[in-house]
């Protein structure tokens, strides 16, 4: 639309309205970005800088937080450290300057990997099951469809943590406690209702004529679903996947309760990073910063679909 | 190409009886048009043949074999939908190739390519093959949709008001084109419409559907001049047929039992006269012709007149019947 027409348009907001809206958005963005910026800065501070008061905005950046995040260290005598050869890496050097040596890798990387496996695994399952269920509800005369859909939705009506204790007991009996499989199943169960409802909306908007045409053209229903429905539902599927992933990635309560060792995810692990004499804040901040990266990348990759997902149907096509 | 037969087909959707006891044969190479208002069961008939619906009773046979239990894919029919006809995520070329690439056919790509290009030329879309199907105009989309049916050589082409979403000019063009293509390839075609012009100009035979029943089937000429009842008579003719009570106008010879007389333009004779039995109420000038609105007592009639006929509003005329159509109290035709 050209400027000339938009200036007189009744539906287009005026320039002033747009400016005010812009200012509000920028202010809101600043408010939400401050904690992130804080964490990002803290991850590059030295431990004394990270707890200094008033907080330092200008400081000498160091990788100490990241080194501490990925390693465990032991204190040694200066004589012992001097007896070692030249430092192998930057982290080696930083650690030695604190009169310590690297004893081995920390648990951060395995926990991060757990998070990846559990979050992406459950997202895939939830979206996969959700797509099939949504297609079924959208296209077939399912007996009691409305009741079933309400029942599916009702699993979201209580806070998940309300069922934490029964699930904890159940998982202990089933041997699913502290297993990646258990966490994947749990997050899938929570997410699948969201997935079914979101995707049903998207699939409802795809006219059935497309599939009918494909079926007449020599495809079975399943082939028509794959060739015609899926390509048109990608927007909805991508949006749903992001929502599911964000939930599974950030989930804390169940993770604390049900995982402690081999299947522990990053959220319950990060706060337990303790340095000498208290919390190692730069390492915690470094852990958080890295933890943000996958969701950031995923969201940026799918941001177009996410926007459409949020505005739902309103701006499609 | 093959003959398609519906035998005693009935179909209900919940409380609504969509079709009852329909018998219809589309002969090999024939162009049959089903004409009827919305809700008369036209689309349901097509969907039953295609296998998108299952009949409650009756048989559907294509080339002599009963197909009721067969999936749409194995029935060997092609369908052109009223709208949403093209796959939006594919290009024109891919849309046209889609039926040929189906697992049911699996043609070699070189053959597909040849077919697609041949059909694209036939429906005059060969210059836009690489376009996204959503980037086409309405007429182009519908041409591609028809093309997607034509790339195959099915037993029968089923078309569900393929031209209804187009503007009048385009509709006229595509109407001719479709008839030309059908003549060229000699295909069996069942076409559904509520547009009497499409029915009259394209059909070998017209079937009139009303309330889920096939009321009459015959050549356009037969349906027009020899309608079985009031409903059929009212479907065809422009302006709309005039239905007047027996005895209102002189002329003709009504058989006993006549309740209603149907008078089209060609059944009315107009003579200017000071003492006439009718009065010109209004004249609509359409350019090439005039619509005369005539008042006979309380009754209003519409007929066509030559634009050179020197007649004006308020003029008295003598109106006489000439071989009109006679209907009994139940609306059935009397001869």
From TrEMBL, chain A:
Domain ABC transmembrane type-1 intervals: 112-302
Keyword terms, alphabetized: Cell membrane, Membrane, Transmembrane, Transmembrane helix, Transport
Cellular localisation: Cell membrane
Membrane topology designation: Multi-pass membrane protein
Transmembrane segments: 20-41, 116-136, 148-168, 180-199, 228-249, 281-302
Matching Pfam families: BPD_transp_1
Keyword NADP: no
InterPro entries per the UniProt record, alphabetical: BP-dep_ABC_trans_perm, MetI-like, MetI-like_sf
Record family assignment: Belongs to the binding-protein-dependent transport system permease family.
PANTHER family according to UniProt: ABC TRANSPORTER PERMEASE PROTEIN, MALTOSE TRANSPORT SYSTEM PERMEASE-RELATED
Record's protein name: Carbohydrate ABC transporter permease
